[in-house]
């Protein structure tokens, strides 16, 4: 276990130098150090865009804090997404607070540029990050959060620390949503989630069905259609949204109209669609890829469509979205029976502040506050709100839950958007 320290800098140094990608933490923390009986005032779980935004907000408060992430590098899941992925929002609308995205503000940055930007962000602000460390379990021990940690690998060293508050910033894309498809056990072809897809090369000449109607489904199906015979299958029709209405990127309009700031909560997921500059709709109209209503079942050799026609298929790609991976909070139950997660393992919160467990917050959940909550530009405002509430609780030394009002419930139903 990390020993309690007398200065916040010592906490930062001890944590930041143990990961696979050390980040200098000097100057990040208050010289007052952590509260008595804890190793750190605030533990941030996750060092992707949500965790980094939380770190930026925390470094301006004077409390001690550190970030931990299971990955070997800062930046969350970005480096692992498919090769052609670009942001839907232009660079000028895609930055975390305090550091503009470099280059032409009107361009749409590539996946690798985003990953590099996030690494640079952590270094620029000297955020204390401990990578290669998975949070296994968070519990309440009566006075603080007790957090069990494990280093990467099956034989990774185990440790623990005590924190006054916890921010779950592992985001809304931690786990792929894998629907229970009829006939899946009998299907003899390849089935993979879009999170494991990289490029069309390996599918040349194949017969492929892409399941989904969101951005990733349409993008992947369209690029696969250049080398394979592809059908896009979904229960709902594709809902198109113009990328540049009146010649200006749609994200400009959502911000300056005030729509982006509306506290839509989980209803934000219902107003998104596939952003298109015209090329994807044209591709579907030309039959590359083809488009059909969802198949009724998988067969040993392919799929059976609603009209009874069976078709041989080599590969099924599930572009069915992601959901939060908050398994480390399952055992977070207070003595009075209140728990962090509900029976469906969904976090119970109001705009990112737990309504059941004082001192617990979230950043990066889809629909946490509004349309942009799970995006680069939305992480900063959400983090600022959550950090303000949690640090207020810490300073009072008697945390209180969120104020009365209808609680948000971030469901684990798939988010149809691409992981932006």
From TrEMBL:
The name under which this protein is listed is: Putative flavoprotein involved in K+ transport
What's the superkingdom here? Bacteria
Q: Name one Pfam family in it.
A: Pyr_redox_3
Which SUPFAM superfamilies does the annotation name? FAD/NAD(P)-binding domain (SSF51905), NAD(P)-binding Rossmann-fold domains (SSF51735)
Q: Where is this region: Disordered?
A: 391-420
Q: Which UniProt keywords apply?
A: Oxidoreductase
Annotated Gene3D superfamilies: FAD/NAD(P)-binding domain
Specify the taxonomic lineage.
Bacteria, Bacillati, Actinomycetota, Actinomycetes, Kineosporiales
InterPro entries per record = Auxin_biosynth/cation_transpt (IPR050982), FAD/NAD-bd_sf (IPR036188), NAD(P)-bd_dom_sf (IPR036291)
Q: Name one GO molecular function term.
A: monooxygenase activity
The yes or no answer to whether the keyword Oxidoreductase is present is yes
């Amino acid at each position: 276990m990390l020993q309690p320290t007398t200065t916040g800098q010592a906490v930062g140094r001890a944590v930041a130098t143990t990961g696979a990608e050390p980040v200098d933490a000097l100057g990040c923390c208050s010289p007052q150090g952590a509260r008595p009986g804890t190793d750190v005032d605030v533990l941030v779980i996750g060092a992707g865009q949500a965790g980094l935004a939380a770190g930026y907000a925390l470094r301006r408060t004077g409390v001690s804090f550190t970030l931990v992430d299971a990955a070997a590098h800062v930046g969350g899941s970005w480096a692992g997404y498919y090769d052609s992925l670009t942001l839907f929002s232009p660079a000028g609308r895609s930055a975390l607070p305090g550091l503009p995205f470099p280059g032409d503000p009107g361009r749409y940055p590539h996946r690798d540029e985003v990953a590099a930007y996030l690494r640079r962000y952590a270094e620029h602000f000297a955020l204390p990050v401990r990578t290669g460390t998975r949070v296994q379990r968070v519990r309440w021990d009566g006075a603080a959060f007790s957090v069990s940690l494990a280093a990467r690998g099956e034989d990774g060293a185990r440790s623990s620390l005590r924190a006054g508050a916890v921010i779950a910033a592992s985001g809304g894309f931690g786990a792929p949503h894998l629907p229970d498809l009829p006939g899946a056990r009998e299907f003899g072809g390849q089935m993979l989630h879009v999170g494991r897809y990289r490029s069309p090369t390996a599918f040349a000449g194949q017969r492929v069905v892409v399941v989904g109607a969101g951005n990733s489904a349409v993008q992947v199906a369209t690029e696969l259609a250049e080398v394979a015979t592809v059908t896009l299958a979904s229960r709902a029709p594709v809902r198109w949204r113009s990328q540049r209405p009146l010649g200006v990127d749609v994200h400009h309009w959502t911000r300056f109209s005030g729509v982006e700031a509306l506290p839509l909560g989980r209803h934000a997921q219902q107003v998104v669609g596939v952003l298109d500059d015209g090329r994807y709709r044209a591709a579907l109209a030309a039959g590359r890829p083809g488009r059909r209503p969802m198949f009724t079942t998988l067969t040993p050799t392919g799929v059976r469509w609603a009209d009874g026609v069976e078709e041989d298929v080599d590969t099924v790609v599930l572009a069915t979205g992601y959901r939060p991976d908050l398994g480390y909070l399952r055992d977070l139950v207070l003595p009075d029976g209140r728990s962090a997660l509900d029976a469906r393992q969904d976090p119970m919160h109001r705009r990112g502040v737990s309504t059941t467990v004082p001192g617990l917050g979230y950043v990066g959940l889809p629909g946490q506050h509004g349309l942009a909550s799970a995006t680069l530009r939305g992480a900063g405002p959400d983090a600022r709100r959550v950090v303000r509430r949690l640090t207020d609780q810490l300073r009072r030394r008697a945390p209180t839950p969120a104020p009365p009002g209808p609680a948000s419930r971030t469901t684990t139903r798939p988010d149809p958007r691409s992981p932006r």
